[in-house]
Specification:
The protein is α/β, with parallel strands linked by helices. The protein is built from 9 helices and 8 strands.
Length: 235
């Protein structure tokens, strides 16, 4: 049995992993799906000071309090920033790092650097106009790809505004990720261009594995069985 840590992205919460989590638990895995400060059931905790380091500390605390070892950490989208930071923060704890349509940042990059200049300006403008200058409206969330309109509506209803500070803060990185034994980059057919570029980079590295899975940004929703197989193969 492995310790599987599922790290969500922007506007969502630990709840989004339920289809995948249930499958992994049924297969005997120990699965944790923490929700980051300011989102999901913790959206009432969002403040102007909620940022990237807040979220890294959220996850590091889960690892410490749950006494996790040999962790298979799976990150989605913005969660890739956090997984990259955790590899530095928790040396020796990660057995595998899995990036699913997720940011794979370089030292000094912020999540907003993954956006086109036009999209970045839109994020900043909407945060100012609709989010009191520190919340990014949840309506910017990418489509889930769920075929059932009712299921997509139910998903989007549970989303939350995202803390702007976590998207604008540059990430200071060391060589922690390079030391993780198993590194896997998963990309879907219609992934944003920068995620696709990261995938090509990973594919060219001798110490990375790469997989193409599904056609949507949320393969844990649209391809949960394939995702469970993929993760189980790493445990």
């Amino acid at each position: 049995m492995a310790d599987v840590l599922l790290i969500h992205g922007a506007w969502t919460g630990g709840w989004m992993w339920k289809p995948l989590r249930d499958r992994l638990i049924a297969r005997g895995q120990n699965v944790l799906t923490p929700t980051l400060t300011g989102m999901g059931e913790r959206e009432h905790l969002l403040t102007r000071n909620t940022g990237l380091d807040t979220h890294v500390r959220d996850l590091a605390a889960v690892v410490e309090w749950e006494m996790l070892e040999d962790i298979v950490a799976v990150a989605h989208s913005y969660g890739g920033m956090l997984l990259s930071a955790l590899a530095d923060r928790l040396p020796g704890k990660l057995a595998a790092a899995v990036f699913v349509n997720a940011a794979l940042p370089k030292h000094g990059e912020a999540m907003l650097d993954y956006q086109t200049p036009e999209r970045a300006r839109e994020v900043m403008a909407l945060a100012e106009a609709e989010g009191d200058g520190y919340r990014v409206p949840k309506r910017l969330l990418l489509k889930t790809g769920l075929a059932d309109p009712a299921a997509e509506t139910a998903f989007l209803k549970r989303t939350s505004d995202h803390p702007l500070k976590s998207l604008t803060t540059p990430l200071a990185l060391g060589d922690g990720l390079a030391k993780v034994a198993v590194k896997l980059h998963v990309v879907s057919e219609h992934a944003p261009k920068r995620f696709a570029a990261d995938h090509l980079w990973a594919k060219a590295q001798s110490d990375w594995r790469t997989v193409e899975l599904g056609g949507t940004h949320f393969p844990m929703l649209t391809e949960p069985d394939a995702m469970a197989d993929l993760i189980e193969g790493l445990t």
